[in-house]
């Protein structure tokens, strides 16, 4: 069914790395030092809730292209103010928290999954994170990608078609020769609309302890995979 | 002296991979099969001679952006015609020869050099090869870069400033925090003019048996390195 696939493109936040654990931990360190009584895991949820709407404003041309770090900073500032703790968190804390998105732990099976798939496919990162952010993150997490691609190269965010299409173009393949792997229905839907093939990789803990992760059953995709090893097997690796 | 350097960017053709051996071998296979009596090593020299002039025409706006594969194809066609063997070399041979630039052997010490430098620096490819070409080449040659960058992202070729500056911008560093490593004076000169730091890595066999390779002594650079291990030592790795 997927004999034409030559490139496997991985979403990063949630699909390849555990953003929730990483952000909640780093938020927790700042809150503890500043004696802020908010729940770091719930704060991480609220921060991430502003991710898609902030990118949508760029894609809808309500504002100019802005780097993901800038969007994270704006939503962080707003959230801290709304929680009445704006004065307790310094400029250097804020810079550190924005940088927290550059250092996140990989899911324990991610490196092995990429290694297996690389034997047969070109395996790349394709994320809304900025190029430099992704290079930092992938290096620190020890993820063996063949190449890193970012929505920054399209100056448009997923799920708009441009990031998916520019990835195919830069890799000299047709969109239908790229399989997008993601743990989110919105990313799968965007990739499918751009003409890519799609694999939903379930990451049940992706949204932390308070939220339900997206499930493959709710999404139209070529491959619904319940785990990393299920995905590798279905791709013949 | 180079304490500010955070990124080491490597040129590819000649600096990291042995283009001359790879191209002469693949040209030799086609010439033998087609019973063409030309010297493959000399043909590789002539083909490469057209590389800088072809890119200069793009940079001087004498023509629109053209992918390196397209420039290689044009110069191959012209060379075969000039040698009077245009009718002996088929379309599929020509496509295969253009693709030869996607499959070239690494210098035997390249992978180890990159591995050593990656412990301390972010280590990237920065070449005039197209992005897809570089991904193919780096994967096949087993070179462990942190990321791949291409002049294609600037739609302008080195030694113009744009490819060097876009690399720094995408990696979120200042130009002076990038060290360009190359075996060619023209690349070192271009990087220096763009504000990068520079290391000349001598590759004495880079131009094959008939030509003299560039030497560090003829070039103004921050680090003149006589070998891969000399370069790693000078960079504290």
Quick synopsis:
The first copy, chain A, has 237 residues and is α/β, with parallel strands linked by helices. Chain A contains ten helices and six strands, in the order βααααααβαβαβαββα. In chain A, helix 6 packs parallel to helix 10.
CATH architecture of the largest domain in chain A: 3-Layer(aba) Sandwich
Largest sheet composition of chain A: 6 strands, parallel
Please report the two chains with the greatest interface, counting residues with C-beta closer than 8 angstroms to the partner's C-beta: A-B, 21 and 20 residues
Overall helicity of chain A: 40-55%
Arithmetic mean pLDDT of chain A:
97
Distance between the termini of chain A: 15 Å
Q: Give the assembly state of these chains.
A: homodimer
Q: For the record, what CATH class of the largest domain in chain A applies?
A: Alpha Beta
Q: What is the percentage of strand-forming residues of chain A?
A: 5-15%
Can you count the helices of chain A? 10
- Which term fits the overall shape of chain A? globular
CATH topology of the largest domain in chain A: Rossmann fold
The number of distinct structural domains of chain A comes to 2
Structural class of chain A: alpha/beta
Strand order of the largest sheet of chain A: 3-2-1-4-5-6
Written as H for each helix and E for each strand, in order along the chain, the element string of chain A is EHHHHHHEHEHEHEEH
At the fourth CATH level, what is the homologous superfamily of the largest domain in chain A?
A: HAD superfamily/HAD-like
Low-confidence runs of chain A:
none
Radius of gyration of chain A: 18 Å
Based on DSSP secondary structure assignment, what is the total number of beta strands of chain A?
Answer: 6
